[in-house]
Amino acid sequence: MNAWQRFWDGDVAWSWRHSPVAIVSTVVLLVLMVASFGAPWVAPHNPFDLATLNLLDALKPPAWESGGDMVHVLGTDSQGRDMLSAIMYGMQVSLLIGLASVLLSVFLGIVLGLLAGYLGGRIDAYIMRVADVQLSFPAILIALLIDGVARAVVPREMHEIIAFPVLVFAIALAGWPQYARTVRGSTMVEKNREYVQAARVIGISSPVIMFRHVLPNVLGPVLVLATVHLATAIITEATLSFLGVGVPPTSPSLGTLIRIGNDFLFSGEWWITIFPGIALVLLVLAVNLLGDWMRDALNPRLN
């Protein structure tokens, strides 16, 4: 029996096959990810190629409304950009920022959580007090602070260049305490297990024990937390972009598209902000529902 067959016959796969919510969420998430990361090949237009834009196509309504056409199914914005294509490209930016910030948060949280839980003492106290202080502030406030400091230090002509990495770092720095606390708690339990004591007896160093032996046994809760945190990271990025401190307009995310469309909402061009908003809701909802299923499927008390 190969590895795939063992996985398909396992408890997690069985739980997924018998959960309609998990199946629908997975399908929706896969469709959105294919549409976003495959945007250069799937999207009907390149909304950011100035040579293909025509101002005469600006503010066209969706195809089913009077004045719309099938060339631009979801209409166009004030620059004549196809909304369906813009949403695909914008979702790609949102997903990239969300995934990169979650990966960085997971890395920081795992390293600091392992150190705090395994070594204990003053290191544990220092790391946890920093985490407690940071958890007392909203994540969006921390992200705004980091983004504001970066923009104040870096010259104005470099703002667009550093926008993506600064946004990833800001969101990641706001999210690491949750992983650190989770990993610390699991590590404090695992370090008293027999396999850790045996590793100490035969002279294996602490870093090797932490990252080779303890880490694989504490990753379950981290994976669940990372899935849920991905939705939070996407929402945080959309909020920052909506406030005008996110990615530049030359590579807009879903939050930027919603902010741009908000200026036209009350003049009748509702599709410019509504459709990116629906895409954002679908993306976040699919990730959240999948995270809820993973939490239940990986919880041994519920199996």
Automatic annotation (TrEMBL):
SUPFAM superfamilies: MetI-like. Residues 91-291 form the ABC transmembrane type-1 domain. Coiled coil: none annotated. The chain crosses the membrane at residues 20-43, 93-115, 135-154, 161-178, 222-245, 270-291. It holds the Pfam family BPD_transp_1. Keywords: Cell membrane, Membrane, Transmembrane, Transmembrane helix, Transport. The keyword Transferase does not apply. It comes from the Bacteria. It is found in: Cell membrane. PROSITE patterns: ABC_TM1 (PS50928). It is a multi-pass membrane protein. InterPro entries: BP-dependent_transpt_permease, MetI-like, MetI-like_sf, OppC_N. PANTHER family: ABC TRANSPORTER PERMEASE PROTEIN, OLIGOPEPTIDE TRANSPORT SYSTEM PERMEASE PROTEIN APPC. Belongs to the binding-protein-dependent transport system permease family. This is ABC transporter permease.
